[in-house]
Structure formats: C-alpha cells, structure tokens
Amino acid sequence: MSKVINIYKSQSIVEPKVKGAIINLNEELPDNSDIVEETFIAEGKQLEEVLSDTLPGGTYDQLFICMMQRKASQLVISNKDSEI
C-alpha cells in the first residue's frame, strides 16, 4: 500500500495564492545506467523546487535539517588517532 501524508502548504502573503502540489512516486527507476545520474539531477531539482515553492519556510527548513542529519553519518570523519 502506498504511503499517504498530508502536509500544510505555505500561506499566501500576496497574490497569486500558493497552489498545493502532488508528488507521485509510483514508478521504479529504469535500469538504464546511461540516464541514471541525469535523472537524479533533474528529479532532485524538480523536487526541491516544488517543495521550496509550496512548503512553509519552517517545514522546508526542518526537512533540510532532517535530510542533513540522515546523511551526516556518512560524512563523519573519525577523530581517533590511528597508527600507521
């Protein structure tokens, strides 16, 4: 069963009003390695743009923080002295 979440959209300060967004994640990435990196770049930019345009600033900021925390463990450099 697909996950469904409901998120508040940003309030409109001026016209035009902020429109909602629907993000469909239903198809698997094709196994064609020639387009994988280009697809990641294009879809990453599209996703960031729609979230930036529609989420309240606080939600967008918290999303960024959560994503960085998830990735941080992959970026940690050990502080321990190592013997060579």
Q: What does this protein look like?
A:
This protein has helices spanning 36-54, 57-75. The protein has a domain at 36-75. 45% of the residues lie in helices and 0% in strands. The chain is mostly helical and 84 residues long. The N and C termini lie far apart (51 Å). The protein contains 2 helices and no strands. The relative contact order is 0.14.
Compact summary:
45% of the residues lie in helices and 0% in strands. It has helices spanning 36-54, 57-75.
So what's the oligomer here? Answer: single chain
Radius of gyration: 18 Å
Q: What distance separates the N and C termini?
A: 51 Å
Report the average pLDDT across residues: 86
Low-confidence stretches: none
Looking at the structure, what is the overall shape?
extended
For the sheet with most strands, the description reads: none
Number of strands: 0
What is the count of DSSP helices, taking H or I runs of 4+ residues? Answer: 2
Structural class: mainly alpha
Strand content: under 5%
- Helix-strand string: HH
Work out the helicity level.
Answer: 40-55%
